[in-house]
Amino acid sequence: MIQLSGIRRIFQVGEQTVQALNGIDLSIGPGEYVSVMGPSGSGKSTLLNIVALLDQPSSGQYLLNGTDVTRQSDDELARIRRDNIGFVFQFFHLIPRLTAAENIEMPMILAGVDSKQRKQRVLQALTSVSLLDRAEHKPNQLSGGQLQRIAIARAMIMHPGILLADEPTGNLDSKSGRDIIELLENLNRQGVTLIIITHDQNVGGRAKRQLRIVDGRLADGSV
């Protein structure tokens, strides 16, 4: 599903050249549960952005479901991202003026899904995260754990095969964090490929496959 070969990412910061990723070789198969851990500045967020098609490598090849996504136009990358990848972030990234239901619905509006199907799928999504009774609440009326559950429902509304979670528990209390991880793991049990970026060993250590990145390279001991 995901195959990275010789991935490098170089940034120019003023007169300084920074190599954020330095020759990453990585394969992740369908349905895997993978964590990527490492200290701040190690390159894990850069790796996430490349896997998510939010950034392009400076060199190397990225195959997603057999397609070389390093050679696609911006419009084609947007379509591939929409159809294949869901995102969950530390700070939720919900639209403040929209209700929970409207936030979940937004990706389907952008994809041109008809209104009847949108309504049905939003109800199913809210039920799946146990928040049907919060459908008309706006983000400022929800707790951190509820916000993250809405974000997960939005991420999965287009039925992507891959779910990327960037520090999904980093802004939550310990109980809400456990609930979110269990929800993500349940999606993985249903066949979704789950990739979690985290600095928290308690979170990353739950993954069936654990990767550690240091100075832009996968470290020895990654499995």
Q: Strand sequence of the main sheet, in spatial order?
A: 6-7-8-3-9-10
> Globular, elongated, flat, extended or rod-shaped: what is the shape?
globular
Spatial gap, N to C terminus: 17 Å
Largest sheet: 6 strands, mixed
The CATH class is Alpha Beta
Protein name: ABC transporter ATP-binding protein
Domain ABC transporter: 2-223
InterPro entries: AAA+_ATPase (IPR003593), ABC_transporter-like_ATP-bd (IPR003439), ABC_transporter-like_CS (IPR017871), ABC_transpr_LolD-like (IPR015854), MacB-like_ATP-bd (IPR017911), P-loop_NTPase (IPR027417)
GO molecular function: ATP binding
Structure characterization notes:
The protein is an alpha/beta fold and 223 residues long. It has a single domain, classed as P-loop containing nucleotide triphosphate hydrolases (Rossmann fold, 3-Layer(aba) Sandwich). Helix content is 35%, strand content 28%. It has seven helices and ten strands. It has a six-stranded mixed β-sheet, with helices on both faces. A four-stranded antiparallel β-sheet has the order 2-1-4-5, with helices on one face. A hairpin with a 2-residue loop joins strand 9 and strand 10. Helix 3 packs across helix 4 and helix 4 crosses helix 5. The model has no long low-confidence stretch (mean pLDDT 93). Pfam families: ABC_tran. This is ABC transporter ATP-binding protein. InterPro entries: AAA+_ATPase (IPR003593), ABC_transporter-like_ATP-bd (IPR003439), ABC_transporter-like_CS (IPR017871), ABC_transpr_LolD-like (IPR015854), MacB-like_ATP-bd (IPR017911), P-loop_NTPase (IPR027417).
